[in-house]
Amino acid sequence: MRHAFTEGTLAAVGALLLVLALSAPARATDHSHHTHSMQESTDALPGTVRITLPDSVLIDQDGESLKFGADAVAGRLVAINFIYTTCTTVCPVQSAVFADVQRRLANRAGSEVFLLSVTVDPLRDTPAVLGQFASRYQAGPRWRFLTGSSQAVQEVLKAFDVYTPNFADHPAAIVVGDPRTGEWVRFLGFVSSDEVVKRLEALQAARAAARSSQAG
Q1: pLDDT (tens digit, 9 = 90+) per residue, 165-201?
Q2: What is the DSSP string of 124-190?
Q3: 63-77, pLDDT tens digit by residue?
């Protein structure tokens, strides 16, 4: 599958690679907020976090209303990121990462893995705007983009500890987890698709082992 990335996305990826190459010695300790300075760390170790999923009602890019915990996550293995469509640096890079994760998981029949992208700018990122953004990355049925009322979105962002009053300052984070076991890991900074897929595969393997144990 060939992804229809814009020139802006490619430029952001190129800029990211350049900055990472120049700043390699200092990356391990840098966890600054998403201020478009491109100083987040790719080497940050993931942190295990406790998350209580809210059932705030959000709306996906197709205009469907759904409860975040009960419907959007719904017991699935998920990778979640937090973006806004007018961002020109971190968000396009993270979206490109999710597009690659989607591509790599596409051929797994019956996959229980879903990708969720929650906007931090619900006033501008309407379902229609998110739909256009989703099509840019050829998002399939297992990748949902979510918006909603300011209050509902804030409830979700606060649950993942990524809410900031100025949405452009939100942390660059990807959260991967299994709601059934409560095992959640938060990656801060620029994370590769390899890291996300590796974590999802570990959670899938754990589920498979648990099913096998129960069957035995």
Answers
A1: 999 999 999 999 999 999 999 999 889 999 999 999 9
A2: T--HHHHHHHHHHTT--TTEEEEE--HHHHHHHHHHTT---SSGGG---EEEEEETTTTEEEEEES-
A3: 999 999 999 999 999
Tokens of 210: 């648990």
- Ranges under pLDDT 70 in the chain: 1-46, 109-110, 216
3-state secondary structure of 49: strand
Tell which residue, 78, 113, 79, 83, has the closest CA to residue 95.
83
The dihedrals phi and psi of 81, each to the nearest 5 degrees, come to -125, 175
Structure tokens at 174: 């990807």
**How far apart, in Å, do the first and last CA atoms of the chain sit?**
39
- Residue 82: phi, psi to the nearest 5? -135, 115
State the CATH architecture for 7-25+38-215. Answer: 3-Layer(aba) Sandwich (3.40)
Question: HSE of 137 in the Cβ direction (CA atoms, 13 Å)?
Answer: 31
The domains of the chain are located at 7-25+38-215
Q: Which two tokens stand for residue 58?
A: 């959000």
